[in-house]
Amino acid sequence: MDLLHTQLQAIQHKLAFVATDAIDWKFYVQVFSWGVTIFESYLLLRQYPLYNKTEPPRALQGHFGEGEFEKSQVYGRDKAKFAFVSGLYKQSLDSGMLQWGFYAWAWRAAGGLLGKFGYGSEYQISQSIAFVFILFFGSTIPTLPLQVYGTFVLEEKHGFNKTTPKLFVTDLVKGWAIAFVLGAPFLAVFLYIFEWAGERFVPWLMAFMITFQLAMVVLYPTVIQPLFNKLSPLADGDLRNRIEALAEKLKFPLKHLYEIDGSKRSSHSNAYFFGLPWSKHIVIFDTLIQQSKPEEVEAVLAHELGHWYYLHPTKLMAISQLHIFAILALFPAFLHAPPLLTAFDFPKAVSAQPPTIVAFLLFQMILTPLEAVIGIGMNAVSRKFEWEADRFAVELEEKLNEKDMGDMGERLGTALITLHVKNLSTVWVDWLYSAYHHSHPTLTERLKALEGFQDAKKKST
């Protein structure tokens, strides 16, 4: 622990200028954030011409029904236009809030709100919680029209929306309530650790973050998700038999197998698993069951179990922890930096002793360009894991010595095509756009890789 603290202090020594130099951090954040937005807009402009192609890639010709490819292209164009406008709108909103001192105002408003209940500035954690929720609602409410348009115009136009206005409002209120019920205690503990641990907060905060993430693995599917969707045991039949047999052969610790009413809100489909290492649960969207044959759904689940087999969720969590550690290691220099708050219009009385939550949020803004780069790296790691999971499905015949799984690669390819066609997913994708936005390889890339995995398997036998 002392060695870690010594290394962290060395980092702070190199960043000591942050606490003394009058840097125009607001200007840099504006430039950085607009730079990221302009780059994302450029990527959309690179991608948009591909939506004007009149035929699918050669590997997918024959898989689209009459008019389906054209529909997917129109859907892609509409989503791209919406993403372009909404991206610029959100950035303009954030930029305006930043330029006109909204964060400083929110801190004052939080203090005034607590003052009405007889609490003074010495209750910094309470004021911090109020501050965060003022920021949350201040940034959320102006973007509600975008959510309404995306759901009731864009998705409705293309036949995907199943959400009623009543359900939309109910979901919104539930989401806000959950954000408060979980967010307030989380922030309280988060900030208390800073007060309690002092300069040695990093390992303690890391331990808390890991504990919280593990708790959410249990709480989200068992407590939170049922507030929005109904999870029912998958009905007896061919599909259930296939999945249970596959899980048993792989020694996957399957405890429950659920069907979720995803069609309640959307026609899009998916499947996933969750749980602790010794107790896993598989969830399949009803839309996936309706759109695909049992043997194709089994292939999709074989891919998902490949992620479990290769410990991909654990590896991603480990990478996430390293990312969080790096952020926390850099943060102390910004925590004790009055010039940082002064640059964002906070009065000297507040800047002299920067509130932890304020310094942390401003620090996160400064990291905007770095986070964009890290996102590209995380996508690359995720795509590598997708290749591995696809290869796992192809090689199940050898791994389990089961001849009836020899066609798992073909089944998975068919399932992926069905999912893309039914969801009107884009099949022409610019490589740079994909690298920045997509955690999965494109459909044509996956189909080509599946063919390669199957050829390699045939040569080895």
TrEMBL record:
The chain positions of domain Peptidase M48 read 234-452
- Gene3D superfamilies per UniProt: Metalloproteases ('zincins'), catalytic domain
This protein's major location comes to: endoplasmic reticulum
Q: Does the keyword Metal-binding apply?
A: yes
**Cofactor(s) needed for function:** Zn(2+)
Co-factor binding comment: Binds 1 zinc ion per subunit.
From the Swiss-Prot or TrEMBL record, give the protein name.
Answer: CAAX prenyl protease
The record lists the organism as: Macrolepiota fuliginosa MF-IS2
